[in-house]
Write a structure and sequence with these properties.
17 helices
Length: 402
């Protein structure tokens, strides 16, 4: 005779499920940070620079993330959440293996196709993770976002260090082998999720998707989405172009530039972890303003840097400044919209992620005309836009009383 699981057993199962889902953000960061790290290994720092091709790469990943939104809903409706997780990881594995086959000197358009598939895989994965973490976001939006951001940053750091280590030890000739090796990572996650069960959660106590979309059109939600759109654009403009900027403008080697990019991810990740301890003790508006000012200062230091020390200092201020903005905004969204709907929150996050990929694409097209110095100009303008949106959100909250 079998007995129903105790509350402790059920709680342990929920924790285990949530832990695996949060760890999935490591894979998401691993996939999306790959492009910024692999560009020097593909030779895009050499003369003549083909910055337009780099812009096409980022644009292709962004299109893939957008396409994944509609595809994910169809897969979940037909096959369920567990299948979606396994399918997203498997597709990402195939994309990395394909990119290993079309590394330079193959035509860049072959890589555009592979990065499109990689973007679809990453977008499907993010959609599945947000649905899986629905209870965690309901109970603690800021804490869950911070831990997810920490795992995400760890994935970005891991991908960057793998490429830097390969260049230090073996040079660019081993890059196809590196990509084939990196394809093993999503394959491992596919096996982990295949052995786990993620049943569809009841949404009876949640609003309909129509209500969530209606809220997404409200002024407050639009401003939150716009703020994350520009903030992710700022972060990924730095992450996608910092190595090429440091190689061509400061004169660093590809290996040194990638190590400074790794420091940027490290500062961003540890800063988000530190924000967990700081949030209860510091006024949120003051912390948000200080973070934006630190990021502005870091951008200026990067623009004026002439050596590795200046570049590392700029990466510190930018990473530390950007670190707390996403957890703060996520907490504000959780207060403003007390329910949690996976499609609603993922819609805001996906819009932000698309902004994070469109910004470096725009940098590529602008750099092709104006030079690599524009890499810092776009995050500078974007950080100013974030500060303006924060002011508008504060004003709107006072007017509406929310």
């Amino acid at each position: 005779m079998s007995f129903p699981p105790s509350n402790a057993q059920a709680g342990a199962k929920d924790i285990d499920t949530g832990g695996k889902a949060l760890a999935g953000f490591l894979l998401s960061g691993f996939l999306l940070a790959l492009l910024g790290a692999i560009l020097p290994a593909w030779g895009y720092h050499r003369d003549p620079p083909d910055f337009t091709a780099v812009g096409n790469y980022f644009l292709s990943v962004a299109v893939g993330v957008v396409a994944a939104a509609g595809l994910a809903r169809r897969i979940m409706a037909r096959r369920g959440l567990s299948f979606l997780l396994v399918f997203a990881c498997s597709l990402s594995c195939v994309a990395l293996a394909y990119l290993a086959l079309v590394s330079p000197p193959a035509s860049s358009w072959w890589r555009v196709a592979g990065l499109l598939v990689l973007g679809i895989g990453a977008g499907l994965l993010n959609m599945a993770l947000f649905h899986t973490l629905s209870p965690s976001f309901q109970s603690d939006a800021a804490g869950t976002a911070t831990m997810g951001g920490a795992w995400y940053g760890l994935g970005c750091l891991t991908a960057t260090l793998l490429v830097a280590f390969t260049l230090l030890v073996a040079g660019t000739s081993y890059v196809p082998g590196l990509l084939a090796f990196m394809a093993v990572v999503p394959a491992i996650f596919a096996v982990i999720y295949a052995k786990s069960s993620y049943p569809a959660r009841s949404e009876s106590a949640q609003p309909t998707m129509r209500q969530a979309l209606k809220d997404l059109r409200s002024p407050g939600a639009v401003m939150f989405a716009a703020l994350l759109f520009f903030q992710f654009g700022n972060e990924w403009s730095i992450a996608g172009w910092l190595p090429l900027f440091l190689i061509r403008r400061v004169g660093l080697s590809p290996e040194a530039a990638l190590l400074i990019l790794a420091l940027y991810w490290l500062f961003l990740m540890t800063g988000r972890l530190a924000s967990v301890a700081i949030l209860p003790r510091v006024r949120h508006r003051r912390l948000l303003l200080g973070s934006a000012l630190a990021a502005l200062f870091g951008c200026l230091v990067l623009f004026q840097s002439k050596n590795a020390f200046g570049a590392a200092s700029g990466a510190f201020f930018v990473g530390a400044g950007y670190a707390s903005i996403y957890p703060l905004v996520s907490e504000a969204i959780g207060r403003r919209f007390p329910y949690y709907h996976p499609g609603f929150f993922n819609g805001i996050f996906s819009l932000a992620l698309v902004g994070g990929l469109l910004a470096p694409a725009s940098v590529g097209y602008a750099a092709a005309e104006l030079g690599v110095g524009v890499v810092i100009g776009i995050p500078l303008a974007g950080t100013c836009m974030v500060m303006a949106l924060v002011s508008l959100i504060w004003l709107e909250s006072k007017v509406t009383g929310r």
